[in-house]
């Protein structure tokens, strides 16, 4: 399988807004290369003192603060690219483009952003890569780290005695071709809320499961059963592998591929009025139409945890919660991201 990579040069401050903006033309998820200095927290999480990883403008010729965003789109046998374009109601339309058409669509969106924000020169380079290149090469940058007292460790690293002493639980993770390592602020916000509101034997629905991080931790926190939904079929083997690596049996988790917002068959399979907790770590543009749908799947008194919300869209997502009749319980911020947790009364 071949993928076309569109690599955009920007600045560190503009990473999130560009990723969010390009969602409108079907580009989901990005490989981010920062040229920002490592913080003390970064170094502690990486468990190394690595001056060789510090950006050096003299050596690289790249200004500190520069960032590169890479988006990958699968190439079919006719050298066409297919993306899923979301509308305002959260529905998706499949659209085929040539590489040149995709590059122009990206440029047009970036030109719109440039009118009100300094996003750098935003030059775009295009190349083709095989699965092996970007599935495995990034692993050199993903090392074990902590979310509070939870140790998250990639499957290719070993657990040391000091880790066991420090951690209350250990999550083994290999994202494969799915999204999610637990490092992103939005995931960490969800994890803390899951831990707070989990009850023994709870039924959990994880919308946008990705690599299964939130479902696995829900079960480790005491959930009785989890159901995951995702649009990407790559999530199926990724979640299965991660469940096995964490000792979770098949009867504890069900995976479904489809759009819960507009696919009644998926909604019927998921089930109504049955979940103690629904968690959705998805961008705001999907959370808004998802929220009134989720209400039908929650039990009375059920908890709805959302994240993936950029600061500027907090009010919009909060309104979606209240418009759906949910009671907002907590709002938390981490970096530029927001988590909103509410309850069905």
Structural notes for this entry:
- The chain has 345 residues and is α/β, with parallel strands linked by helices.
- It has two domains: 136 residues, 2-Layer Sandwich (Alpha-Beta Plaits); 167 residues, Vaccinia Virus protein VP39 (Rossmann fold), CATH 3.40.50.150.
- 31% of the residues lie in helices and 32% in strands.
- The protein has twelve helices and 16 strands.
- The strands form four sheets. It has a seven-stranded mixed β-sheet with strand order 12-11-10-13-14-16-15, with helices on both faces. Strands 2-3-1-6 form a four-stranded antiparallel β-sheet.
- Strand 10, helix 8 and strand 11 form a beta-alpha-beta unit.
- The longest helix has 16 residues.
- The chain is globular and about 50 Å long.
- The termini are far apart.
- About 6% of the residues have low confidence.
Could you give a short account of the major beta sheet?
7 strands, mixed
Radius of gyration: 20 Å
Number of domains: 2
Number of helices: 12
Report mean pLDDT, rounded to a whole number. 84
Give the structural class: alpha/beta
Number of strands: 16
User: How do the helices and strands follow one another from N- to C-terminus?
Assistant: EHEHHEEEHEHEEHEHEHEHEHEHEHEE
Name of the top-level CATH class of the largest domain: Alpha Beta
Tell me which CATH architecture of the largest domain applies here.
3-Layer(aba) Sandwich
Low-confidence residue ranges: 40-60
CATH topology of the largest domain: Rossmann fold
> Strand order within the widest sheet?
12-11-10-13-14-16-15
CATH superfamily of the largest domain: Vaccinia Virus protein VP39
What is the distance, rounded to the nearest whole angstrom, between the alpha carbons of the first and last residues? 48 Å
């Amino acid at each position: 399988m071949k993928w076309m990579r569109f690599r955009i040069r920007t600045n560190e401050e503009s990473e999130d807004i560009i990723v969010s903006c390009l969602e409108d033309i079907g580009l989901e998820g990005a490989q981010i290369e920062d040229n920002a200095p490592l913080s003390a927290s970064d170094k502690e999480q990486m468990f190394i003192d690595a001056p060789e990883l510090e950006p050096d403008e003299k050596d690289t010729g790249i200004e500190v603060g520069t960032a590169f965003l890479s988006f990958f789109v699968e190439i079919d046998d006719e050298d066409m690219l297919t993306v899923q374009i979301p509308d305002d109601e959260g529905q998706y339309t499949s659209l085929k483009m040539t590489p040149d058409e995709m590059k122009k669509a990206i440029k047009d969106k970036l030109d719109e952003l440039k009118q009100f924000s300094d996003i750098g020169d935003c030059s775009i380079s295009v190349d083709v890569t095989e699965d092996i290149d970007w599935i495995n090469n990034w692993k050199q940058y993903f090392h074990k780290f902590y979310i509070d007292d939870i140790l998250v460790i990639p499957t290719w690293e070993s657990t040391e005695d000091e880790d066991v002493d420090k951690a209350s639980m250990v999550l083994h993770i290999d994202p494969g071709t799915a999204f999610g390592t637990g490092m992103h602020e939005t995931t960490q916000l969800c994890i803390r809320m899951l831990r707070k509101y989990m009850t023994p034997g709870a039924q959990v629905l994880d919308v946008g499961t990705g690599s299964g991080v939130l479902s696995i931790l829900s079960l480790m926190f005491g959930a009785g059963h989890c159901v995951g939904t995702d649009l990407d079929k790559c999530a199926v083997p990724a979640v299965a592998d991660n469940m096995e690596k964490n000792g979770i049996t098949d009867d504890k988790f069900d995976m479904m591929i489809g759009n819960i917002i507009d696919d009644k068959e998926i909604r019927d399979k998921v089930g109504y009025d049955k979940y103690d907790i629904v968690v959705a770590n998805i961008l705001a543009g999907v959370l808004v139409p998802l929220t009134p749908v989720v209400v039908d799947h929650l039990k009375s008194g059920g908890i709805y945890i959302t994240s993936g919300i950029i600061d500027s869209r907090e009010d919009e997502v909060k309104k979606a919660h209240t418009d759906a009749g949910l009671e907002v319980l907590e709002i938390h911020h981490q970096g530029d991201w927001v988590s909103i947790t509410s309850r069905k009364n």
